[in-house]
Design goal:
about 575 residues, mainly alpha, five-stranded mixed sheet, two-stranded antiparallel sheet, 9 strands, about 55% helix, elongated, disordered N terminus
């Protein structure tokens, strides 16, 4: 005969305890289940990314074309000699980021391959510590699952984590930092501050502000300093580490400086509406809430369930109605401190344009994590309240249906919201014969091209290009002034009716090959090219084409072509110079 206790707890109550019971009442099996489920979804998303990464032979993530291509030097030091573009992107690579890729190249894992493998690993690390931080703030394992799932969905619906560039390391380094900080572990907090500084030094500014705010207490509009001896050790040591990193970062000068000023940027079409690095916009809402200049609101509220985080401050006001509010730790104030730090640095970045790089970098990452935690806690509190409301039989069915529909929408939202989830921004190389031809040439060649295909040549052909849209990053004037001049002279030379302009361009820039798209000599080719359109030389070229004035280089497309595909011709600079001399 069964004991009374073995049958006294209804199934619904046991399920509720399994999902919603806060520590120390949480069954160990519940913690294991929800933590394992969190990792399962992270792995599913990561494997989806891997499938796209290895779906063809020539695949590269969009941002990796900037930040990873030059690392092929780790395998072959002879690549990209005296290459302005490669030298620049190597110079701006954080030390830890470059060291990781260099080390892995030394053990046989090529940089491009590593960039495809890392996102899965980074996603799993992010998930582990997102779950851990949630348990520190609100010890309900179901909430840990919801927070990690929301954050993973957000990261895999956008192209930060998948890029395996420095910004991809913010989450797997900040989250363990925050976890150990909440546990008041001085050593591991300091270690992760130092590592974060090696991978994404700007974000250490956020850490420094959070550490300072930790020593401040505010109640009833009164502010005072309140520190225990343990707090002094934790905050003092880690502030010193953060301060040292920031001093080193501030004193490190770029070989391609100075940083472009706000007044300079306002004069460049690249920074205006429609420009390659659009920043200044007439629409105030777009300027402050979207893009590089804004808080990146759409990124923060992706997926849409993130918006439920706004309910958390309201729910916390009604602990008698929402019973699980009592399980929220006092350390939840860390979320407010992260928000304050993010906005302080956001406005500081606006005030010091572009010394602290882009303002959106400080809010996008920080607020995305805050909203994931806030939304997860709010969802858990609301579901608990829904279960309690549905204890009577007629309502129990309704509550179950509502919960089931919410679960389906929650789990499958990314697939319903977008056709290409996970969103990877992987680019495919569509010209393997062209890459093979260029790889047969000496490693020190320089290729001129206005075609979009030029973006892929450093990655897939391992050869230098004079300029290409992907590398038009205008934040260091010492780099971008030279890049911009190269680009404008290339436009002018390609469309000049005077062969003398072509010869001067080739000789002054040391160009060896000229890749020209076969449809390049029509007005529409330039008119619809937003990257090239702002320049005066482009408008002059369009006017000449519309007037029927033929570019000089067009007359040599057959005579000097040494390789052709259906869409492209590769012209020999030596041939062009020889013809001109004759």
């Amino acid at each position: 005969m069964s004991s009374p206790t073995s049958v006294s707890i209804p199934l619904s109550n046991r399920l509720h305890r399994f999902c919603m019971a806060p520590a120390p009442s949480t069954p160990k099996s519940a913690v294991i289940f929800w933590f394992s489920l969190s990792l399962t979804f992270a792995a599913i998303y990561g494997i989806g990314g891997l499938q796209q990464a290895f779906s063809a032979d020539l695949v590269v993530q969009d941002d990796a074309r900037q930040h990873v291509f030059w690392m092929q030097r780790f395998l072959d030091p002879g690549l990209f000699p005296n290459d302005l573009i490669a030298d620049y992107f190597q110079s701006v690579a954080p030390a830890g980021y470059a060291l990781l890729y260099r080390f892995m190249a030394a053990v046989g894992i090529a940089p491009l391959l590593l960039s495809k493998l890392l996102p899965l690993l980074l996603g799993l690390i992010t998930t582990i510590f997102c779950f851990g931080v949630t348990m520190e703030l609100f010890p309900v394992p179901f909430a840990g699952f919801v927070a990690s799932l929301l954050l993973n969905q957000s990261l895999w619906m956008q192209d930060g984590l998948i890029s395996a560039t420095p910004k991809a390391f913010v989450y797997p380094l900040f989250l363990p930092l925050l976890y150990y900080f909440l546990q008041k572990n001085v050593v591991f907090t300091g270690i992760f501050i130092a590592i974060l500084g090696l991978f994404y030094p700007q974000y250490v500014l956020i850490i420094a502000v959070i550490l300072i705010l930790q020593g401040i207490e505010w109640k009833s509009w009164k502010i005072r300093i309140k520190l225990t001896r343990q707090d002094i050790n934790l905050l003092g040591i880690n502030l010193a580490i953060a301060g040292l990193i920031l001093v080193i970062y501030a004193l490190t000068s770029s070989d391609f400086g100075p940083t472009i000023s706000a007044s300079q940027a306002r004069q460049l079409p690249e920074f205006l509406s429609g420009g390659r690095s659009q920043f200044f916009m007439d629409d105030a809402w777009a300027f402050w809430f979207h893009g590089r200049s804004g808080i990146a609101l759409s990124a923060i509220l992706t997926p849409v369930f993130m918006a439920l985080g706004f309910l958390l401050p309201i729910l916390l006001k009604f602990p008698k109605v929402f019973i699980l509010v009592s399980a929220v730790s006092a350390r939840i104030r860390i979320l407010l401190e992260i928000v304050i730090a993010a906005f302080l640095m956001f406005f500081a970045a606006h005030g010091l344009l572009f010394k602290l790089h882009l303002p959106s970098r400080y809010t996008q990452h920080s607020l995305r994590m805050v909203m994931a935690w806030a939304a997860a806690i709010a969802i858990t509190i609301l579901l608990d309240a829904l279960w309690r409301w549905g204890q009577s039989v007629p309502k129990k069915i309704t509550a179950g249906i509502i919960s089931g529909l919410l679960a389906i929408a929650f789990l499958f939202y990314p697939q319903l919201a977008m056709n290409n989830f996970p969103w990877t921004s992987y680019e495919r190389g569509e010209q393997p014969e062209l890459y093979a031809f260029l790889q047969q040439q000496p490693s020190d060649i320089l290729i001129a091209s206005l075609a979009e295909e030029a973006n892929n040549l450093p990655t897939f052909a391992h050869r230098s290009v004079l300029a290409a849209r992907e590398y038009a990053i205008p934040y260091h004037w010492g780099y971008y002034e030279r890049f911009r001049n190269r680009l404008q002279r290339m436009i002018q030379a390609q469309y000049s009716p005077n062969m003398g302009d072509v010869v001067v361009f080739l000789q002054e820039n040391g160009v060896d090959w000229w890749l020209i798209e076969k449809g390049a000599f029509t007005p529409g080719y330039l008119s619809y090219n937003r990257w090239l359109n702002p320049y005066a030389v482009t408008q002059e070229a369009i006017a000449n084409l519309e007037a029927g004035i033929q570019p000089a280089i067009a007359t040599l497309m057959t005579q000097c072509s040494r390789f052709e595909t259906a869409d492209f011709a590769v012209l020999s600079a030596d041939c062009i110079l020889t013809v001109q001399q004759d």
